[in-house]
Amino acid sequence: MKITGLKAFHCNGSRYPWVFIKIETDAGITGIGQASSGPGSAMVAAAASRLGGWLTGEDPSRIEYLWNKLFTGFSSLGNRGFASALISAVDIALWDIRGKQLGLPVYELLGGRFRDRLILYANGWFQDCETPDDFARNAKAEVKKGHTAMKLDPFMRFIDRSEPRQHAGGMTPAAEAKGAAIVEAIRDAVGPDVEILIDAHGMYDVPTAVRLARRLEPCNIGWFEEPVPPENYDALRLVREQIATPICVGERLISRYDFRPILDHQLANYLMPDIIRTGGISEMKKIATMAEAYYVPVSPHDATGPITMIAGAQVMMTVPNFYRLEIAYSELPLYNEALTPPLDVHDGYFHVSNRPGLGHELSEEYLTKQAVPF
Ligand SMILES: [Mg+2]
Predict the structure, then answer these.
(1) Band of the pLDDT at 161, cuts 50, 70, 90?
(2) pLDDT at residue 155 in the model
(3) How many angstroms does the Cα of residue 225 sit away from the middle of ligand 1?
């Protein structure tokens, strides 16, 4: 089998447009992938549309070879971030092709089912919330739906954004109190048995991160996610040394090479790689295996699009140290518009498709109707 071409798609997503690719082969099998995007999504789509030149004529079953061909090819330009987003899309599409060629779901090619279904944690359940009472009401509803863990960022809405400083946080004492009141109301509503995960979105300097984490300690937080930006591991260590709450990082870390120091220096209790940023299915599996050797659980970041969710889930079906899969309920309707068949989510679990490859296709109707020029 040979790769004959690659198409890129730029379509309306949730916060930003999503970038998808389709890799075509001379056997008539196609594979789908997604690249991480953001405000620069049109540039990512334009770059993705040129990847065919690197891949045409290659054997799509040589996934490791092609991953390394791209990763080393981008080395001088910088193979993290923009390049690793493109590599992620290609890698996911190659695994989809391989599964379809062999008639097996991707998880069967990665070691087989470790489990039958994936336990979820809820995100995006608070879109209509303003007051602590609103959050408490919605949190209770998530528990009723079967969830035993939920995530939120209680502080982001109160940040002073008058300056584009990444790591100042802009938190005032009044804003901190408002955020803490939301978390206290949730803890009161759901009781002690539900995990509350707090996302700091990598937005704080060290003293702010430490102060916020300590403030929430009486609420028994499950993890404090990305307390500081991802570029400085020493800053993360400083936070870790000063707080009792477990730390989770990884959605902005690229490839096994960024995760290695986190594990070597015990800087986090949980890892959360994003499969469309960090290097695709191949890299997610490797990072999970590295973490396994350190007894660190893995919980993929799944808030960046439909193929993020299904590709990460395929890997987690095989990973002994899987913790929980994130689901952004605010985005699920659009995931189900983009994918066919829709996702099987119920009772707090994601039930992964047993169809060949990723088990889903991009809906042609969605690709046409939601297309955005790039
Ligand atoms: Mg996050």
Answers:
(1) confident
(2) 94
(3) 6
Query: Residue 318: CB partners within 8 Å, gap ≥ 6?
Result: 107, 110, 111, 112, 113, 114, 285
Q: Which CATH architecture does the domain made up of 3-104+364-369 adopt?
A: 2-Layer Sandwich (3.30)
Query: pLDDT at position 226, please?
Result: 97
Q: Which of 10, 201, 346, 360 is catalytic?
A: 201
201 is catalytic: yes
Set 10, 147, 301, 360: catalytic member: 301
Q: For residue 175, is pLDDT > 70?
A: yes
Q: Where are the domains of the chain?
A: 3-104+364-369, 109-355
Q: Where are the beta strands (DSSP E) in 167-211?
A: 195-199
pTM exceeds 0.85, yes or no = yes
pLDDT at 163: 67
End-to-end Cα separation, the chain, in angstroms: 31
CATH number of the structural domain 109-355:
3.20.20.120
**What are the residues whose beta carbon lies below 5 Å from ligand 1 (ion)?**
199
Whole-angstrom Cα distance, residue 374 to residue 363? 20
265 a catalytic residue: no
